[in-house]
Amino acid sequence: MFTQITKGIKVSVQTTFEGTFFKNYKMHYAFGYTITIENQSKDAVQLTARHWDIFDALKELETVDGEGVIGKKPVIKPGKSHTYSSGCLLASPIGAMRGYYHMVNFSSTEEFEVEIPTFKFAAPFAIN
């Protein structure tokens, strides 16, 4: 598990290898990840946007920006958490992702970024 805390917001990531398949005559490697965002601060926060840097050993860096996570902009109260799962397709059996969430503090209206730790993808057969 990969974990990072920024301004009282703890982000934990668990990854899984989902398998391989052919798409457009090329092999692809499917990975899943489950992220838990835990509010350890004293104020309610809302996740409004995300930024991802996706590293694939066989391709150039891919950057993805978007609103919320999986179609939601969760409000996370103090002591509560939000968990979601998503996935990533790579051309290589080895890769990684990192990024940040854009958040708003409901008490101060301060906007801030919460780091998502770099987490790695590796198909079991690709590991020595």
Q: Would you give an account of this structure?
A:
- By secondary structure, the chain is mainly beta.
- The chain has a single domain (about 1-125), classed as Sandwich (Immunoglobulin-like).
- About 0% of the residues lie in helices and about 70% in strands.
- The chain is built from no helices and nine strands.
- It has strands at about 1-5, 10-25, 25-40, 45-55, 60-65, 75, 80-90, 95-105, 110-120.
- The strands form two sheets. Strands 4, 5, 6, 8 and 9 form a five-stranded antiparallel beta sheet that branches.
- β4 (about 45-55) and β5 (about 60-65) form a beta hairpin.
- The two termini are about 20 Å apart.
- This is Co2+/Mg2+ efflux protein ApaG.
- One of its GO terms (biological process) is error-free translesion synthesis.
- It holds the Pfam family DUF525.
